[in-house]
Each structure stands twice: as structure tokens, then as C-alpha cells.
Amino acid sequence: MVSIVLASHGKFAEGIMESGQMIFGPQKDVAAVTLTPDMGPDDLKAKLKDAVASFDEQEHVLFFVDLWGATPFNQVNGLLASEGHEDWVMVTGLNLPMLIQAYGDRMSEETAAAIAKDVFTEAKNGIRIKPEELEPKEAAPAAAAAAAAAAPAGAIPEGTVIGDGHIKIVFARIDTRLLHGQVATTWTKAANPDRIIVCSDGVASDQLRKTMIIQAAPPGVHVHVVPIKKICEIAKDPRFGNTHAMLLFETPQDALRAIEGGVPVKKLNLGSMAHSVGKVVVTNALAMDQDDVDTFEKIKSKGVEFDIRKVPADKAESYDAVIKKAKDELAAQAANK
Asked: What is this structure's pTM?
């Protein structure tokens, strides 16, 4: 796996490394190197060398640096020139989209050079302006052009069979927050859907929430917001035979309705369920009440497998252990009333 060094003035590198871990989970062979006012160029160079020496992988190293031409840049540039490693690569203009893209890419890419080419575009696409009309036309993200090019020229006649006529559910998740950083980056890269479908009656009828979710779409992936009835219809529509969909549910009750309505969910990821009155905290990401527990048991009875983790890098938790804890906590809550 390609190693990564983040180098910056002050604690920017440390902060962005922490932000990246919030979204993508803990990362191996990533180091933050900071330049403080009491340090000279040689001190920074020594810290950079120490960072690389701490990695298991030292032949393929990607350096993300905050500014072109400043001290961190100069010291990394010196290392690239003097150390003689063919696959030590530097990219400047460090930002969070760039780092998240690199974390995803290094799961499959074997060289720093290959990752650098990919993150270059992502780093630029991550710079946006709201309202959009203030964006220079030439600065609009490539994803917008790709989406326009991919738009169908006309409606596909009803009854048309595309592919094998069955929608492919590549990932299904319950998450109170629906589409956010962890989903738009880590899970999208892991599951590789061509569409994200948010399945919620409430959000589908709330134009503001619907618009905000669609605007959060990751580059190159279409996002739709539909009520539960609609996703059940889509699951039976042969026109979606070539669709590879990620489904996001706000509650287990919505997921159960979809499954009972014929949506072919074989595995269900439990990512986040917010705490509210009457619920008990089961894990650091899940809170449940009795209705939730009963709903999960109904889903399990239909042969659905559970994957309990926030991000792909996390170790999956045992469904039986999580449900047992929920039942115990709910029983204790009832006894104390």
C-alpha cells in the first residue's frame, strides 16, 4: 500500500489527517509533518525522513504539501531529488477531497504516481462556489459535464428489458444522516455504484432536504431521492437491469418496508442511528428502541445478513451481540422507570 506524508506550515497537516480519519477511518502508513516557528529547514527535512522511515512501505510514497514553493515544498523537493526513489511523488495544494481520494485509491493502486494523477482532478473538483452561478464556467467540475453527457436522450419505453432485467443492489445502508462524507467517499469507492438512491418518504416530500442531498453527490454518481413505494416499483422494473445501486435508508422500518415490497437486499449495513427519547445507546454509532430491535429481527428472519460498521476500514461487529446489548439496555431502562 502506498504510504502518505502530509506536510504543512503549523498544525494544518495534523488537523486534516484527523479529518480524513473521521471520514475514512484509521489509516496505516500516514504521517503528518509540521513546520513550527522554532524550526529550520534542516529540522523539517529530518522530520520528513523520520516519517518515511516509520512506514512499512518506503518505496512508494506520496507527499501532500500545503503550498508550492514554500519551505515544506522545498524540503520535499530536495528529498525527491536526492533520495533516488522512482515512486516518490509530491502534490501541492493539500485539501480534504484530495486526501480522501488518495485513501480510496491506495486500496487498489500500487504506485504513488498513479494516485497522484487521480487526486489532481479530485482536488480541483473539490473547490466549489455557492451559489453556483458565481463559478467560472471553465471551473465547473468534470462530474457535472459527465452527468450531462450520461443523461438519457429520451424516456425508455415501459416494459423494455435492459440487461438481465434485475436491478443490482451493490450496497444498502441504514444511516440517520443518509448521504454524508463517509458514504459519499468511503462506501462509494468500496461499492462502486453508478446510482445512489435515498429511500425515504419524509425526505422525498421535503424539497429542501432533497435538494441538499442531491447536491452532496460524489463525482460521477447520480443521486435520486424516492419514497419507499417508488423503490419497490424500481426493483420490479426491467429497465433498471444495468443499474448498480447504493440504497440509503433513514430507519430500519423503511428498510423493512422496502424488503417486504420486493427490493432484493441481501446484506444491510448498519452505519448510524441517532439517539432520541426512548432509545438506548448500543454502540458509539447506534441507538435503538424496542421497535428498532423488533424490526431488525423481522429483517433477519427474511434471510438478510447484517454488516455493522461505520466505514469499510472498521472491524464489523456481531449482530447477535449488538442486539443482545440493545435488549439488555432496554430491559434495564424499563426496570428503572
From this structure: 0.68
CB 249, CB 258: distance < 8 Å: yes
Report whether 162 contacts 242 (CB < 8 A). Answer: yes
The span from the CA of 260 to the CA of 331, in Å, is: 29
Beta strands (DSSP E) in 150-283 are 168-175, 195-199, 222-226, 244-249, 267-272, 280-281
The radius of gyration of the chain from alpha carbons, rounded to an integer in Å, stands at 23
- Please say if 9 is a catalytic residue: yes
Query: Closest Cα to residue 6, out of 78, 91, 83?
Result: 91
First CA to last CA distance, the chain: 53
**Sheet holding 222-226: strands in order across?**
222-226, 195-199, 244-249, 168-175, 267-272, 305-308
Residue 323 has pLDDT above 90, yes or no: yes
53 CB-near residues (< 8 Å, 6+ apart) = none
Q: Report the pLDDT averaged over residues 100-106.
A: 89
- Bridge-based pairing of strands 60-65 and 3-9 is parallel
> Facing residues of 226 across strands?
199
**C-alpha distances out from residue 2 to 16, 105, 112, Å:** 18, 9, 6
pLDDT tens track for 311-320: 888 899 999 9
Catalytic annotation, pick one of 85, 166, 180, 275: 180
- Cα 146 from Cα 322, distance rounded (Å): 42
Region at 101 (left for phi over 0; alpha for psi -120 to 50; beta for the rest): alpha
Mind giving me the DSSP string for 253-320?
HHHHHHHHTT---SEEEEEEB---TT-EE-SSSBEE-HHHHHHHHHHHHTT-EEEE-SSTTSPPBPHH
Over residues 279-286, mean pLDDT:
93
Grid cell digits, residue 299? 429483517
Distance, in Å, from the CA atom of 266 to the CA atom of 304, rounded to the nearest integer, reads 5
Catalytic residue among 9, 166, 222, 275: 9
C-alpha grid cell for residue 75?
524540503
Phi (first) and psi of residue 198, to 5 degrees: -85, 120
Residue 328 DSSP SS3: helix
